[in-house]
């Protein structure tokens, strides 16, 4: 059984998502320990936290049904696969058509593989999901314009300021999301782009690409009050920008420059999850937006791409049918491998008996081995072809009968 448990932007806001994530992890850990789950993939982004699990353990369905938490979604079987395909195609993204989710799914698969808990079933599933995402992008215009959370954040800043010409913008975080923000900003006629990151080298690298300036993370306070727009997108587990930090930054600036007047009304757009910026900054006149505030832009994008969404869903339906056939054949391969193993044990056992009886005949071992191999191959061929045909015809009763009639008890 393939299981998906998740919390995402469709079920809750960013604040609640931070809280629910701990409950989600606890549910997963309980699953993992109780059912000895060794095959799973975790996907964690600014808009979602998900676990994909494969397990046929007895009793797991009862545990799934007992989950009573209205913010956590639990799906199994085809429903969970369908969600993954929609996700890799960016149909489940806050910004429909964004490309980042496909890379995040690839990273999640690679991480699970590296840590040794990918497994054959989820490897097949995620390989297929990545293929589906690529097919959707190649055969539709779903990602035309390269819309992203980063560009949506820039659009939000422009909606408030009118335009960003001659504005000073500070980007906090030089990771993948920070890079998307900075690249969207680079297309504007800005007064300055500053990039701050805990790893100064990454800040320098990104700033050089954009014609901006890197600053040391420890110097962040010096630039907070001087920036018209601050876009924060780090992976920090803790809040970085608070009311107290902003006030201290303003006071330090006043002490260094007696002529400084604090009349700049900064806009902060926090697209990190967990959030980088505390709500209390609003108390000192700062305009604060977070991921939830991008929903208006997201809804507009979805409407604009309605036709592309329909085409993407058709591709997903087609690929779903192909995957179901692949999983059926995978199941049959396991049955046939066990069946072949059982037949081989019988062949070897009976061959040894015959060899003992024909010990005085020249070449008896080779003759008997060739004969018994030929018999098994011919019997196995007919059986395997019939079982494979049953799989193609979705004749589950015949497949189950094959398991019962042909395989010996363990």
Molecular structure report:
This protein is α/β, with parallel strands linked by helices and 410 residues long. It has 14 helices and 10 strands. The protein has helices at residues 14-35, 60-65, 77-88, 100-115, 119-139, 149-161, 176-186, 200-210, 220-223, 243-256, 295-304, 306-357, 364-392, 396-406; strands at 2-8, 40-45, 48-54, 73-76, 168-172, 192-197, 213-216, 229-232, 267-270, 287-290. The protein has a 6-stranded parallel sheet, covered by helices on one side. It has a 4-stranded antiparallel sheet with strand order 2-3-1-4. Strand 8 (229-232), helix 10 (243-256) and strand 9 (267-270) form a beta-alpha-beta unit. The protein starts with a strand and ends with a helix. The relative contact order is 0.09.
Mean of pLDDT: 85
* Lateral arrangement of strands in the main beta sheet: 7-6-5-8-9-10
The helix-strand sequence is: EHEEHEHHHHEHEHEHEHEEHHHH
Instruction: For the record, give the distance between the C-alpha atoms at the N and C termini, rounded to a whole number.
Output: 22 Å
The parts where pLDDT drops under 50 for at least 5 residues are none
Tally of individual helices? 14
Note the main sheet: 6 strands, parallel
Can you tell me the overall shape?
elongated
Strand fraction: 5-15%
Q: Helical percent range?
A: 55-70%
Question: How many strands?
Answer: 10
Supply the helix-strand structural class. alpha/beta
> What is the CA-atom radius of gyration, in angstroms?
29 Å
Summarize it.
Helix content is 57%, strand content 12%. Strands 7-6-5-8-9-10 form a six-stranded parallel sheet, with helices on one face. A four-stranded antiparallel sheet has the order 2-3-1-4.
